[in-house]
Amino acid sequence: MTAVKRLPRLPGMKYKLLGTSGVQVSALCYGCMSFGGDADETTSARMYRASRDAGINFFDTADQYNKGRSEEILGELARGHREELVIATKSFNPTGEDVNARGNSRRHITRAVEKSLKRLQTDRVEILYLHQQDPLAPLEESMRALEDLVRAGKVLYPALSNHAAWQTQLALGVQERLGWARLQALQPMYNLVKRQAEVEILPMALANSIAVVPYSPGAAGLLSGKYLEKQNGRLVTNKMYEARYGEPWMHEVAAKFVAFCRSHGLHPVSTAVAWVAAHPAVTAPIIGARNAEQLQASLDSVKIEMSPALRAEIAALSRTPPPASDRSEEQKK
User: Fold this and answer.
1) Which of 72, 166, 180, 242 falls 20 to 30 Å from 47 in CA-CA distance?
2) pTM of the model as a whole
3) What positions carry a catalytic annotation?
């Protein structure tokens, strides 16, 4: 029998700068979306402790996650060492039945942050992401809301999630023209089967020295290989994830990726996270889990030496998105 090829691993958590803020964050960000939902308080505490033991100081949540319960649990867990953490939260999605309890209006952003601070038991959050782009609110209105919160000391660094590169550049233009605090972080979707961010978002972030904190590095579990074995999970039970990762070619890529990892003695989840983390524009992929045992593979991603050659080999298993100019023939030269 041929021996399994094993790749070298590097131990230990690394820390990177958050944009141009001077703040150092762990090279993995723990996403608390499961807190108060798939993970009860006890399980959430175990995952939080495992993250802290691994060296993570960067935590991500949102006011919408489990109707605010995620923020409440994180706030409880952070008591006594809040100053050691960099906490990010988000606003935009509906937080109530009222027609104005959503969106990126200055009214909603301000009210949402006040409520988030109470749930988190803190006087400020380091990062506030606008969770989505709002077609109803002028960009200047939303940026003014962020600036007001920065000046009040309730938000330290403005940020955007799920915005296109052109929308982000417009926001930066507004901030620079008016002398307002600039964006310091972006949160796009990015993984081996969702690579659109490579076309414009990641190069734009690099050019502007903005931190990139991508979510879903494991493609909602698709790249773990569990769906190849017909296991249950979000891709089966959640219509949004089923639609997001339902194209047959994505499952074909997942099968090739899992086979590649097994042939190289690598855990698919660890490798999927390490692949995202190795992009030069990425500051810290967001990891998460339903329990501490499931979380360990993501934490182990920092032990994988993702060389440029290995990253390219893995990238070749998937589709490379066309360039922004559509002059794809020039990429083949």
Assistant:
1) 242
2) 0.93
3) 65
